[in-house]
């Protein structure tokens, strides 16, 4: 199964059902970014260690009802001053 081609909804469903871990999804997306970003130059800064740590933390708990995309990898626009 190509984890990078799943919809966000399907990824969230799989995480909630424990069919895939948030860490596994994160690692798949980081690998895709590593392969594609040199050509696309879409990601200016990637904090892979923090992303994997966050995914591991997500795997330690279950999503709440108000977290529809819990554990799903995403990017944040670089113009934002973002941490955590």
Walkthrough of the structure:
This protein is mostly helical. The chain contains three helices and no strands. The protein has helices spanning 8-16, 22-40, 48-59. Helix 2 (22-40) runs antiparallel to helix 3 (48-59).
Topology (elements, then pairings):
Blueprint: H1 8-16, H2 22-40, H3 48-59
Helix pairs in contact: 2-3
* Secondary-structure element series: HHH
- Which residues form runs of ≥5 with pLDDT under 50? none
Distinct helical segment count: 3
Biggest sheet layout? none
Number of strands: 0
Structural class: mainly alpha
Per DSSP, what share of the residues sits in E-state strands of 2 or more residues?
under 5%
Helix content: 40-55%
Radius of gyration: 13 Å
Intertermini distance: 29 Å
Shape: globular
* Average pLDDT, all residues: 92
Characteristic terms for this protein:
84 residues; mainly alpha
Structure summarized in a few sentences:
The chain is built from three helices and no strands. It has 84 residues and is an all-alpha fold.
């Amino acid at each position: 199964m190509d984890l990078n081609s799943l919809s966000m909804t399907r990824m969230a469903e799989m995480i909630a059902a424990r069919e895939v871990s948030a860490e596994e999804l994160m690692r798949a997306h980081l690998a895709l970014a590593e392969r594609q970003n040199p050509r696309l130059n879409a990601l200016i800064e990637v904090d892979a260690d923090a992303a994997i740590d966050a995914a591991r933390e997500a795997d330690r708990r279950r999503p709440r009802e108000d977290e529809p995309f819990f554990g799903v990898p995403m990017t944040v626009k670089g113009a934002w001053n973002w941490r955590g």
